[in-house]
Each structure stands twice: as structure tokens, then as C-alpha cells.
Amino acid sequence: MSLESKEQYDLSPKNSVEGNHQHSPLSNMHPELEKESSTDLKQFEASDQSTPYRRIHMEAQEKSNTNFKQFVIKKLRKSCQCSPAKAKNMIWGFLPALQWLPKYDLKKNILGDVMSGLIVGILLVPQSIAYSLLAGQEPIYGLYTSFFASIIYFLLGTSRHISVGIFGILCLMIGEVVDRELHKAGYDTADNSPSHLGMVSNGSTLLNQTSDWVCDRSCYAIAVGSTVTFMAGVYQVAMGFFQVGFVSVYLSDALLSGFVTGASFTILTSQAKYLLGLSLPRSNGVGSLITTWIHIFRNIHKTNLCDLITSLLCLLVLLPTKELNERFKSKLKAPIPTELIVVVAATLASHFGKLNEKYNTSIAGPIPTGFMPPKAPDWNLIPSLAVDAIAISIIGFAITVSLSEMFAKKHGYTVKANQEMYAIGFCNIIPSFFHCFTTSAALAKTLVKESTGCQTQLSGVVTALVLLLVLLVIAPLFYSLQKSVLGVITIVNLRGALRKFKDLPNMWKVSRMDTVIWFVTMLSSALISTEIGLLIGVCFSMFCVILRTQKPKTSLLGLVEESEIFESVSAYKNLQTKPGVKIFRFVAPLYYINKECFKSALYKKTLNPVLVKAARKKAAKRRITKETVILSGIQDEVSVQLSHDPLEFHTIVIDCSAIQFLDTAGIHTLKEVRRDYEAIGIQVLLAQCNPSVRDSLARGEYFKKEEENLLFYSVYEAMTFAEYQNQKGVCIPNGLSLSSD
């Protein structure tokens, strides 16, 4: 049976499909033909002899007609009900320590917790002092920050292993904000650490506009740091309350890795001046990394040889011992506290050698003992710091949540992401009243904590006790410690981030797109600024997601032998293709961005119905005849009968299994494709539509209710239906008319 001898078209304006996009082709058929088609379709569905299987039928679940107002009232009633049990659960949920501490197994856990807490505390002492310089603060404030964070996370945290405290990237971001505000306030930023807390330094003073007392550079710096920390904590608690932790999904592993590596270059650059003993203003804003290196090379002749020699000696000690710690960590019961040893040795050498007096080396200066009186953040600074706190809060909670989930999965327990956001939020809000700056989990210290036998959050209390001992007794002994030693400690701890370059070849093999995202984020974070680099990374990452859906993979499918599985004919050999049926797969959501890509790919892999129709119209002008067609005793005048070459196929099946959703543009595109193919006698069937796509098609009136059976649950079912229609020669409901005579 030749297809061209059986197809007939009514091109009268009244019934033309072109004239009305929404007009169903069913309405073009004579009622008797429509009835016949429906009968044949029912025969197909019920027949077991003509088809190898029975037509699949699935009954949809009844949707509840709950009124939105009733739903909200029900939820509010449930949440507002108060009972002793609910109050107890709420308190226990907010303070997880009340749940696990009474069940604490002293014999099993105490040794590991004490050992890990003690070692992490020893490591935190020099790092807290070193990272204070990075944050533009006095050394004492870094010790305060680590102390309060350890105590608060012990009470609120759900992860047994992560170490919460100062984190280099956040210290860098805080330092950039602090230096910007100091410059705006008119303070001299050439020296990041005045020699006396709360007192005049280098004659640079300013009357704080928010009070009547004189606040020096150090006082104003911690006011800025604690205020931005308070705002970051508020954002984190708000994200936990409104359960918007999904924001972190936009920070992919490649993006975070690139951001940390890029920020590490900025940290290294900011510490280089301490290694050389140079007193330079800290560069802020776009291109600060390049500007800083320009300043360093311009002043390289002013290098303090004593600081340079000290830096080289510390590097020669720290780098090999750090490598040994990592290489033999399975054999060592505890890592060698090299940083603490270097700090003690350098302090003794500086003190007894009188390096500051003889060679004018830059030293840490006086570090007071005890705690300073609590002080509220500077509320007048909030408008200028609110935006800066957003990026800081997102980075802080993203790193904390990801680390807590990673170690929980590794050790077989669960953490609550929202409670982690509460915990890290209050680790910033409460300490901001005690002269502290922003904290988060830190990978390096967490790894040390895990490897030294940590069992529960109690190890955080041991760490806090070590820091408390330093704050009350030992801190003043670090007066003569050279800043170059602290700079070396900071730089050596960047090794992990800088080693990411070794992973790039493997990342390129796995995903080129992720590698590009890594490079873009890393370069923008290093060369532009950390905040803008993070924003560029997020935007570029989202653009890459859109790009992947804008030009997705498309293919024609073939049937795997002796199965009902269809795969791409361009990817696999020996696939069977049924004559007269083309099966097309589109691997992406169909929406406004890629609708033209969908149409062009479909037309390219099958045929372009618009060109076919134009060719037929051109041929019709040369050959026009009149015929009388008698249908069920009724005479209709057909104005034009086209003669044309036969088409290679009569049905297109679109595999919708990879189409996650449709928007209005996608539905309109499917309507347009169906209409164009129907105009040349080819039916379009949709297969494997998920419930969301089916609902969108129904709401978008893609088909009438009686045409709903043209959506198939499998590609094989759609193909069999098309073959059955072709064999029976029935009038297909979506416009293709075949005669069985």
C-alpha cells in the first residue's frame, strides 16, 4: 500500500489547519470517520491477536482538593500547639548536647576526645594568632574567636568530628572589609597591628562617631569585624529558620574548590610582606593581588634581612615536617605539633636575641591576658556591612554543612543541616559581643581531629580549655614573636588548596565543564576580588547549566534485538529501526531557551515539514485538478489534489523520558511541531512522559480528552501502535487518513 496514493488533503480555508493553531485535526474529519477511528483505536487497545501485548492503562491518583487557606490554618495550628513534650523536644532539638551528653560512654570515648581536643588546641594557638593578622585584627581576638566557637559548637552542633574555629578564607574576607572601613574612617592602614589595644598608635586616632570616647585603629578594626560577624550570623540563623539551605547547592564542588584556590593566592600575597619585613598598606578592591605585588617589588630594596632569614628558616622546618606528618599519619598516634614548636623557638630566639631592638623586626606586641568586657556590635556600621556579610555567611555555612555531612557519612551517623546552620550562626552571633570575628568549620583541623581519635563533640571542650589556659596565662609570652613567623604559618597551611592544580588533569577527563568553572572562579577570585570572584563563579556555573540545556544531545533511536529497549543509533551498532517510524530523543527540559534547538534538531534528523509543504504547494500550482469525493453518501467539493513523492515514514515518536518539564513555550513548540507534521500526513506520538509533563500538556490543551490515549507509557508501545495503525489503514485521530481499500 503506497502512502501517497492513500493521503488526501482538504485545503479549503474553512478547515485549514494553518488557519487555526488550536484547532484539532479531529474536527476536520467527518463524524462517521471519527467514529470509525475511535472504534479501531478501541480494537487496538483490546486486541491480543494483532499486537503482542495488551495496551498499558494506568489510573491516576485522585488529587486532594484541600483549600490553600485550610492547609495554612492546619499547619499553623499544628505548629502553634504547645505541650510539655513538644517544648522538651524543641529544647532538645536546639541543644543536641542535652541528648547525647547523658548517654556519653566515658570508658569508650574519653581518651580519644581528650587526645584530639588537646592536639587541636595546641595547633589552634599559633594559627589563631597568625590568622588574626589576615583578618586585620590583634592576636588576642583570634584566640577569643577560637575559644568561643569551640564552646558554642559543643552545645549546638550535631557533627561529632568537625572542628569549628578560624578559617583562612573567611579571615581574608573579613580583613578586606576591615581595611576598607578603616580607610573610609581615615585610619592609617600601613601597619595592621598597633602595639597597644584600645590606645593611640602612630598618632593615628579618630573620634568614633557612634560614641563619645576615642577609638584607635585596633578598636575600630574589631568593631568592624564583630559587626560583620554579627550580620553573617543573623543571615545564617535566618537561613536555618526559613530552611533555605538549598542555596548551598549553587556552590558546586568545582566552584568551591576554585574559589578556595583563588582566595589562597590572595592570602599568600597578603602575607608576603610579613615574610620580607615590609610595612605596606593593604590593597583593597578590584585587582588588589596585582597591586600588592607591584607595591612589594617597588619596595623590595627595603626588605628586612632578619625577617627574611627567619622566614626561610621557618619554611625549611615547617614544609618537610608537614609532609612527614601527612605521609606517616597512619603510623603516628598524633601529628607532630611543628607549628607550636616553631612559634616557641622563634619567640625565644627573638626575645633573647633582641631582634626587634637590633634589627627592627616586626613583632606581635603585647597580648593581654583574660577577657575584655563584652560590647555590642556597632549598629551604625550595619548598612555599610550588610552586603559584605552575605557572601561571608554563605561561604561559612556551605563549608560547615558540607564537611559535617561528609564526615557523618564516613562514620555512619546523621547530621541535621538546618541545626548546623543554627550552630554556625550562633557561633558568630554570640561571640560578636565578645570581640570575635567570623568562624566556620576548617578541613585541615577537622582531619587532624578525626585522625587523633575524636569520638564526640566533647573534644571541643578540651580544645577550649587549652585556649583558655593560653588566654589566662601564656598569651603575654608571645610578645616577641615575629610577624614573619606567623606569615609563614599561614602560607604553609595553604598547601592543600594550592595542590588542587594536581587534580586538574583528572578533573578535565571527568568533566571539562567543571574544569572550566574551576578556572573561571579561581582566576576571578584571585585577580579581581574574593566577593566578586564568588559571584562570577556562581553566575558562570548557572550559565553552564543553562548552556547544557540550551544545546542538549539529540538522537534517533533504534530497538535493541530481542528486547523493548531503545538506544541511540549513533552510539550503538546493530540496532533495529522499524520502517515508517522515526523515534527521536531530546535530552533536556523543553523550555523557552532551547525550543528552537528542539525544532531544528527534530527537523534535521527526520525531515522539515515546512519545506515539504512549500514544495508541494509549488507543485500544486503546476498541476491542479478537480475531483469529487463521495464520503458516506455526502458529496464534498475538494478544490485541490496534490500529487507528490511518497514520504519515507508515517509516524514520529518523541521519547520524552529525558524531558523533565515543559513551560508554555515548550508546549507551544510541541503543538507547532505536531501541526506542521500533520499538514504533510505524519502523525506525532509522545512516549514516556513523566506526570509533570503530562499535567503540563493537559493544562496547555495539547490534546483533547479523547486524544489522551495518544500519550504512551513506553516507546515500544508507541511504535507498536503506529505499526498497527499503518497495517489496518485506519483514520488516525491526529489527522493522517489512510484507506484500507
Automatic annotation (TrEMBL):
Reaction(s) catalysed by this chain's protein:
nitrate(in) + chloride(out) = nitrate(out) + chloride(in); iodide(in) + chloride(out) = iodide(out) + chloride(in); bromide(in) + chloride(out) = bromide(out) + chloride(in); sulfate(out) + 2 chloride(in) = sulfate(in) + 2 chloride(out)
Q: Kindly list the GO molecular function terms attached to this UniProt entry.
A: secondary active sulfate transmembrane transporter activity; solute:inorganic anion antiporter activity
Task: Write out the GO cellular component annotations.
Answer: apical plasma membrane
**Taking every annotated instance into account, which residue ranges of this chain make up the domain STAS?**
571-722
Q: Compositional bias (Basic and acidic residues) at which positions?
A: 31-42
Q: Which family does it belong to?
A: Belongs to the SLC26A/SulP transporter (TC 2.A.53) family.
Q: What is this protein called?
A: Sulfate transporter
Source organism per entry reads Ursus americanus
Name the gene: SLC26A2
